[in-house]
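Worked example 2:
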Amino acid sequence: MSVAGRLTTINALVGFDGFIDAIIRVVDARASMAPSDFVPIPTIDALARRVAAAAGLSANMELVVHEERFGGNGPLMAGALGSLSLPVTYIGGVGRPGDERTLHPIYEPFARRCAKVYPVSAPAFTDALEFDDGKLMLGKPGNLQGITWASLKSIFGLPALIDLFASQRLIGIVNWTMMGGVQGIWQGLCDEVLPKLPVLHIPGHMPIVRRRIFIDLADPAKRTDPDIRSAMATLRNLEAHADVTLGLNLAEAVRIDRALNSGAFASCRHPSSPTGQEVASAAEVLRNATGLSCVVIHPRSGAGASDSMTAAAWFDGPMVAKPRLSTGAGDHFNAGFALAQAAGLPLEECLAAGTATSGAYVRDAESPTLARLCEMLAALPEPQA
C-alpha cells in the first residue's frame, strides 16, 4: 500500500476551538494613504520600543488587515492533517452566530479538507499581528466558553460520542489556555469514553491497543502555577488510556518548567536561546516530570523531543528569515509531528515531518499537501539566519 493509502486508514479527531483570524501588519511609516503604501514595523522588539516610548503620553498605531481567514489551533491543525491525506473529524467553535450548529461560511474551505465537521458554537476572534520575528495573538475567546464536557454530551449524547471516538487513531485536543472547558473534556474522556473504546485494528498492522492524544496548551503564560499543575495531573489521567504527547513552543516549555519546578533549562548556558541539544534534554526532563509518553518542544530553529522509546532527539528545521505567514506555523508543526507519530515513525522522523510541514506552510502561506511535504523532506532547505 502507498504512503497516501496507509494514511487514509489513520482516522483523526480534533477539537474544540475555532477563531476567525485577522492577519495584520502594524504601520511604521506611510509614503501615502494608498492602502498598501506603507512600511510595517518589522519586529516585536521594535513594536515594544514604540509602545514603551508612548508611556505617559499617547500613541496612535494603524493596523492594516491583510486578510481574514479561518483560524484557531484546532481548525489549523485539523486542516493541515486533512491536507496531508488523513480522514479528519472536527468538533468545535466553527458555527454561524445565532445558528451555531450550522457551519460558518468562512470555514467552508476548511470543511472540504475534513471528513466530517460538527459545529458546536460560534467562533471566537483573534487579531494576529505579524512581524518578521514572530507574532502577537490578541484573542477574544468569549464565544468558546460554552464548550464543555456537559455541553458536548447534551449536543451529541454519550453513546454517539463513544461511537465518534471509537475509530480514531489520533485525537488532538488544543487550547486549554483560552477555553475553560477543555480540562473537563479531558477528564470526561478519561471517565466516560476512553475506557469503553474497543481495540483498534488498522489494515496491515497488528492490533493497536493504545490511541495517541496530542495536546497543545496554547501559550499558558497567563495561567497560574496551580492551574498548570492541575492540568498536568489530568493529562496523567489521560495517559492511563492513551499515549499522550504534549507539544510546546519554547516559551511554553519554559512556563511549564517553571510551574513544575523541574529544572529543565537549569543547565542551559543561555536559557533564552538554548542549543538544539539543550532543547532535547529539556524535553526529556519535562517528559519525566509530567509522566507523559512524549514531550516535544519546537523553537523557531527546529524541534527537540523525548519519548518512551528515545531518550531525546533534535532536528534542525528549515527556518526561513522572512516567512510569508507565521500565524499557524506551530499548529502545522503539530499536524506533521502527530501524523508521523500516528503512522508509527521513529522520533527523529516525526521531528523531520513536523519541521518540514511548518516550513512549507510559512513559505507557501498555505497548508502543504502530502506531495509538498515529501518534496520538502527530500530536499530540505538550509536554515536561514
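The domain at 3-23+69-378 is CATH 3.40.1190.20 (UDP-N-acetylmuramoyl-L-alanine:D-glutamate ligase). The chain has a mean pLDDT of 93.
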